């Protein structure tokens, strides 16, 4: 009698539970699935061998994710995003203020006012002074900074950076050609198209 033996990948459910699905954008059921290599006889699995892989499958959208998705906390992710973009707003405004090599009291007041409007909370003067000191002690170009911070921002965060730069630019009463050029450079470093930038500026000018 001839035996037909071999191996094949066999998927099984290792566990179930609830998780926050990034695709469904809500909490839903999941299955934790294992894919094992199994020895077969006549194509029927008879012995489980090594683990080939594992994944999380959402039972609502049926998308699959790496195991790390079980640690995803949308509230913590939002807090981290808020921290990144408020720091970026503060740094960009400070860098623009320092571009002419001088610091005026009115500029400090303007930055604090804009920050409060955008971030929704006050920027203490000592925190702004620390930001100025850090910019002076660790000089970098706007391009270098935005290329670093850009990938951590969504479209809303990038638009907020543009708005902050715009408000600083018009704080003296008008938007001149050189300032428009800077806004275009900032948008380019953040991968914002010219059309998108024009839309943001048109909205701000209303």
Give a structural overview.
With 206 residues, the protein is of the alpha+beta class. The protein is 49% helix and 24% strand. The protein has a four-stranded antiparallel β-sheet with strand order 1-2-3-4, with no helix packed on it. The radius of gyration is 26 Å and the shape is elongated. The N terminus is likely disordered.
Give the SSE order as H and E letters: EEEEHHHHHHH
Q: How is the largest sheet built, in terms of strand order?
A: 1-2-3-4
N-end to C-end Cα span: 86 Å
- Strand element count: 4
Looking at how many chains there are and whether they match, the oligomeric state comes to: single chain
Number of helices: 7
* Rg computed from alpha carbons, rounded to a whole number of angstroms: 26 Å
Task: Output the keywords.
single chain, 4 strands, 206 residues, TerB-like, disordered N terminus, 4-stranded antiparallel sheet, alpha+beta
Q: What order do the helices and strands come in, and which of them pair?
A:
Layout: E1 5-21, E2 26-41, E3 44-58, E4 64-65, H1 74-98, H2 105-119, H3 125-137, H4 142-149, H5 155-169, H6 177-189, H7 194-204
Antiparallel strand pairs: 1-2, 2-3, 3-4
Task: Please provide a brief summary of the model.
The chain is α+β, with helices and mostly antiparallel strands and 206 residues long. It has helices spanning 74-98, 105-119, 125-137, 142-149, 155-169, 177-189, 194-204, and strands at 5-21, 26-41, 44-58, 64-65. β3 (44-58) and β4 (64-65) form a beta hairpin.
């Amino acid at each position: 009698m001839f035996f037909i033996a071999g191996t094949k990948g066999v998927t099984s459910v290792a566990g179930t539970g609830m998780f926050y699905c990034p695709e469904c954008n809500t909490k839903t059921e999941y299955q934790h699935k294992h894919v094992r290599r199994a020895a077969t006889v006549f194509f029927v699995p008879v012995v489980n061998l090594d683990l080939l892989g594992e994944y999380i499958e959402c039972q609502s959208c049926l998308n699959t994710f790496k195991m790390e998705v079980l640690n995803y906390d949308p509230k913590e992710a939002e807090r981290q995003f808020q921290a990144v973009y408020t720091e970026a707003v503060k740094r960009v405004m400070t860098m623009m203020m320092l571009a002419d090599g001088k610091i005026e009291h009115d500029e400090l007041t303007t930055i604090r006012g804009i920050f409060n409007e955008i971030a929704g909370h006050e920027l203490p003067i000592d925190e702004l002074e620390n930001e100025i000191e850090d910019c002076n002690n660790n000089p970098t170009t706007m391009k270098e900074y935005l290329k670093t911070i850009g990938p951590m921002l969504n479209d809303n965060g990038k638009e907020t950076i543009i708005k902050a730069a715009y408000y600083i630019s018009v704080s003296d009463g008008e938007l001149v050609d050189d300032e428009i050029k800077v806004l275009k450079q900032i948008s380019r470093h953040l991968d914002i198209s010219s059309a998108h930038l024009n839309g943001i500026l048109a909205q701000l000018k209303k």
